[in-house]
Amino acid sequence: MKQHVFLIALLLVTLWACEKDENKLPTEPVLLSPANGSVVDLSKLEFDFSGGIDPEGAYVANNLMVSEDSMAWYEIKNHAKVFDCELEFREGQKYYWKVQSFEYDESATQVIAGRMTESKVFHFYTNAPIWIVLKG
């Protein structure tokens, strides 16, 4: 009987030791600026965020996404400038933005399918032009 208990314990320890650790998703990106619901001057529009980080240390690319309606998103690639975006920012409009963090393989050349985390969605408004009418 003692031998059976010992063999079962040995088998359980062996199985437990052979289990592969679960690969965790990148942490959720945090949006910093423009703040949610803020009004932004187009000449000073700047996106600031803290990108996702992989708990196991794999390379993570963070892509900025911008939308006019929160349905159709325009991607601004990692390290790109906002003016490279196909979306033309206009005065007096509401825009949405989010960040997606993608985990890459060990060679840091290819995104691993399904290894993506997305931030919350924020919105902001651009200043409407101010018209001053003088009567006199």
TrEMBL record:
Q: What is this protein called?
A: Uncharacterized protein
This protein's species is Carboxylicivirga sediminis
Q: What is the lineage of its organism?
A: Bacteria, Pseudomonadati, Bacteroidota, Bacteroidia, Marinilabiliales
